[in-house]
Specification:
This protein has helices spanning 14-27, 54-60, 63-71, 93-102, 111-123, 135-146, 153-159, 176-183, 197-200, 207-218, 225-241, 261-272, 278-299, 315-321, 340-346, 362-372, 390-404, 422-442, 448-466, 475-482; strands spanning 32-34, 162-166, 190-191, 246-251, 302-307, 309-310, 329-330, 354-358, 378-380. It has 487 residues and is an alpha/beta fold. The longest helix has 22 residues, at 278-299. The radius of gyration is 23 Å and the shape is globular.
Length: 487
C-alpha cells in the first residue's frame, strides 16, 4: 500500500528536522496563491465541466511526463499526442495508461514523480502502487471518480484551497471564459495574465496573422509602430479591467535596448513586409521589453520576464507534433549588461515591479541576487521549470537570500499546466523551504519566531504582495455583482 511520509523533504539532521516540522505546520494549511499558471480558464467555465479521462489528465497533455517517456524510446504517438499531419496516434486511453503505468518507475527521484504520487494518493485516494499489473484497476478507480461532482474542476479548486489563480493569455484572447466565470456567481478569483510574445517576435511564422488579430481585438488599425503600441496598450487596459495584475514575457536572452522612434518604425515596417532579419527581431524584442516596462510604470501591471529556454530543440518532434511536447532546453545567460538599459531607465522607479526568472542557475548568485539586492523595481522569481525541485529550491535559497534578502524574492508560483499538480507543487515548495529555514534555526542564524515569519512569507505573503492581488480586483466582477448577476 502506498503512503506519503509526513516528514518527507525535511533534512535528516534531527535539530533541523524538528525546526522544519514546527514552522511547516504553521503554514501548511494556508491558501494557495497561484500567480502564474498555464491552466486554461475554460476548465472552470461551467459547474459540470470535467477533467477528462485518466490518460488525458496524467499523460497526453503533460510535457514533463512526455519528456521522460520519450527519453526512454517510447513514441509519442503511442501516448496519444496528436500529430500535426493527422496521421495515426493512439486513441485507446486505457492502452495509453497501460504504457504510462508500466514505465511509472522512471519518475522515481524526480519532482514529477513526487507530484504524480501525491496527486494519486491525496487527490484520488489511490492506495495501490501504480505498476503495469495494477494499471487497469487504478484506471477504473480514477475513471469512476473523475465523473463524480467532487472531482470536477470547480470542486477541486475549492478543495485545493486556491485563493487566486491566474491564467496566461494572448492579447487577442476575448477572455470570454473569464467573463463567464465572473458572471456565474461562483466567486472564484481567476484572473488573466497578458502575454504578448506572439505579437512582438517579428520572425515568428504567424506574426503578420497575429497583427491582423490584434487589429480585430483592439479596434486599432495597425499600420505603424505607433499604432502597434496603441493596440497593445488598449488590450492591456482590457486585461486590467478583467482583473489582470501582471504581464508575462518570454525571451531567449535578457537583452534590452531603447531604439529611437525612427529605428523602431523602420524595423516594424520590415516586419510587415516579411523582411525582418534575426537581428531585427533581437533588437525589436529588446526594445519592446523597454516599452512594456514603461507601460507597467504607467498602468501598474507587474512585469514578469522568463528568460533562457531554447524552445522546440528537437526539430523532428516539432515538425511532427508542434510545440510543448517536452523538447525545450535551458541555455546559459547574461543579465548584468543585458538588463542595464532597462534598469537604468526604470529600475529606480518603485512603480515598476519586474520579476525575473531564469533557467541558468549560475546567474542567481553571480548577477541576479546582486541586481535584486540593489534596484527597487527588481524581484527574483522562484526556481522555474527544470529547477522547480527539492534540490533546485535549496540551491535557489542558498544562492539568493544571503545577497538579495528574502523580501526581494516573490515566494512561489507553480507555473503549472497540469491543474491537479498545483497542491503537490506548493507542498514540495513549502516543505523544502521549511527545511532550508530550519537549517538557519538549527545553525543559530534566526530564532524560531523569525523562522515562522519567514515561512509565512515564502508560503503565502510574498507572492500575494509581489503580484499586487490586494490592490486590484476585476472591474468586470465588481460590475456583475453590482448588477446582481452573481446569484
Amino acid at each position: 500500500m502506498w503512503h506519503l511520509d509526513p516528514g518527507r523533504l525535511f533534512d535528516a539532521e534531527p535539530t533541523q528536522r524538528a525546526a522544519a516540522r514546527a514552522i511547516f505546520e504553521a503554514a501548511a494549511e494556508l491558501p494557495l496563491i497561484c500567480p502564474h499558471t498555464h491552466v486554461h480558464a475554460s476548465l472552470f467555465s461551467s459547474e459540470g465541466a470535467t477533467l477528462g479521462t485518466p490518460a488525458a489528465v496524467f499523460v497526453v497533455h503533460d510535457h514533463y511526463v512526455l519528456r521522460m517517456l520519450y527519453s526512454q524510446g517510447i513514441h509519442l504517438e503511442s501516448l496519444g499526442v496528436p500529430r500535426v499531419d493527422g496521421h495515426w496516434t493512439e486513441q485507446n486511453h486505457r492502452q495509453i495508461w497501460q504504457v504510462f503505468a508500466e514505465h511509472f518507475h522512471l519518475f522515481r527521484g524526480t519532482p514529477c514523480g513526487l507530484w504524480l504520487k501525491q496527486e494519486l494518493i491525496q487527490v484520488f485516494g489511490i492506495q495501490q502502487r501504480l505498476t503495469g499489473e495494477t494499471a487497469q484497476a487504478v484506471y477504473d478507480e480514477l475513471e469512476e471518480k473523475l465523473a463524480l461532482p467532487p472531482f470536477h474542476p470547480r470542486s477541486l479548486f475549492e478543495r485545493f484551497n486556491i485563493e487566486v489563480l491566474t491564467t496566461t493569455d494572448g492579447p487577442t484572447d476575448t477572455l470570454d471564459h473569464h467573463k463567464g466565470i465572473a458572471a456565474s456567481g461562483w466567486g472564484a478569483d481567476i484572473r488573466p495574465t497578458f502575454r504578448p510574445d506572439a505579437e512582438t517576435n517579428l520572425t515568428s511564422e504567424n506574426w503578420r496573422n497575429q497583427i491582423e488579430r490584434l487589429v480585430l481585438a483592439s479596434g486599432v488599425t495597425v499600420r505603424s509602430y505607433g499604432t502597434f503600441v496603441q493596440a497593445l496598450q488598449a488590450r492591456r487596459q482590457y486585461f486590467k479591467m478583467m482583473g489582470a495584475t501582471a504581464t508575462d514575457h518570454a525571451a531567449c536572452s535578457a537583452y534590452t535596448e531603447e531604439l529611437s522612434r525612427r529605428e523602431a518604425e523602420t524595423i516594424f515596417q520590415r516586419g510587415l513586409r516579411g523582411e525582418a532579419t534575426d537581428e531585427d527581431a533581437r533588437r525589436f524584442t529588446g526594445h519592446m521589453l523597454m516599452e512594456f516596462a514603461r507601460m507597467s510604470v504607467e498602468d501598474g501591471l507587474v512585469m514578469q520576464l522568463h528568460i533562457g529556454s531554447v524552445r522546440n530543440h528537437n526539430e523532428q518532434l516539432y515538425r511532427r507534433f508542434g510545440p510543448d511536447v517536452g523538447a525545450d532546453i535551458p541555455r546559459p545567460l547574461e543579465f548584468t549588461d543585458n538588463l542595464r538599459a532597462l534598469l537604468n531607465r526604470y529600475g529606480n522607479d518603485s512603480r515598476l515591479r519586474l520579476i525575473v526568472f531564469t533557467l541558468d542557475e549560475s546567474a542567481y548568485a553571480r548577477e541576479l541576487a546582486p541586481l535584486a539586492g540593489h534596484y527597487p523595481a527588481l524581484r527574483l522569481g522562484p526556481p522555474w521549470w527544470f529547477h522547480d525541485s527539492p534540490n533546485g529550491i535549496r540551491r535557489h535559497h542558498d544562492r539568493v537570500v544571503e545577497t538579495a534578502g528574502l523580501q526581494n524574492t516573490v515566494g512561489f508560483n507553480d507555473d503549472a499546466r497540469a491543474f491537479l499538480s498545483i497542491p503537490a507543487r506548493h507542498d514540495v515548495w513549502r516543505r523544502t523551504a521549511a527545511s532550508w529555514i530550519g537549517g538557519l534555526i538549527a545553525g543559530g542564524l534566526v530564532d524560531l519566531a523569525a523562522g515562522k515569519e519567514m515561512m509565512l512569507d515564502v508560503a503565502y505573503r510574498l507572492a500575494k504582495r509581489a503580484y499586487r492581488f490586494d490592490e486590484n480586483r476585476s472591474e468586470f466582477l465588481v460590475h456583475t455583482k453590482r448588477e446582481g448577476r452573481d446569484d
